[in-house]
Design a protein that fits this description.
The protein is mainly beta and 116 residues long. It has no helices and eleven strands. The strands form two sheets. Strands 2, 4, 5, 6, 9, 10 and 11 form a seven-stranded mixed β-sheet that branches. The chain has a four-stranded antiparallel β-sheet with strand order 1-3-8-7, with no helix packed on it.
């Protein structure tokens, strides 16, 4: 299983950013995908989930209405579109796939920094 995130960077408060995650090594169409984030000193937080068919999404309260998760079966990728970013969104963002019985697989992460 390989997950490679990209698209992070520095953005001003109120700005937008889109993260992407390319995948390989598993049957992408059969699995839901997740985005997590982690800030220094904090536990990893589940931000968004999309099911295998792409017709059901779930968001944490902290990002609901601002972030949108999507997936593309053709490119076997998932994206996280983030708008109205806040300083508290600063974190390393990871995409993830849960494959039983091994559990969550994560990419290396991409840094998002929201600062003026």
């Amino acid at each position: 299983v390989q997950l490679v995130e990209s698209g992070g960077g520095l953005v001003q408060p109120g700005g937008s950013l889109t993260l992407s995650c390319s995948t390989s090594g598993f049957a992408f169409d059969d699995y839901g995908m997740r985005w997590f984030r982690q800030s220094p000193g904090k536990e990893r937080e589940l931000v968004a989930f999309i099911n295998d068919e792409g017709d059901n999404t779930v968001y944490s309260d902290s990002v609901k209405g601002r972030f949108t998760i999507s997936r593309d079966a053709t490119t076997k990728s998932t994206s996280l579109n983030m708008k109205d970013l806040k300083p508290e969104d600063t974190a390393v963002y990871f995409c993830s796939v849960y494959i039983a019985p091994w559990g969550h697989h994560y990419g290396q992460g991409t840094q998002v920094t929201v600062s003026s």
